[in-house]
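Hey, can you fold this one?
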Amino acid sequence: MADLYIKALESERKSLWATCRLKGLGRNTPERQRIAALDELIVAHKSRPAGEGKKNAAGEPEKKG
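Sure. Predicted structure:
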């Protein structure tokens, strides 16, 4: 099954990067800072074990049922 979370992060990063390239934005713009944050989220998500369960916004395992 496709990991929709990672696909969404990568899609947002790609879109922001294209905007930065098109507009010639510098390093300290909010868009470039968001790209850096997305890079960290992508690395963290890819490095976690595959068997680890989903977590909610508070970082706690989701409850089923």
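The longest helix spans residues 4-23. Let me know if you want another pass with a different chain boundary.
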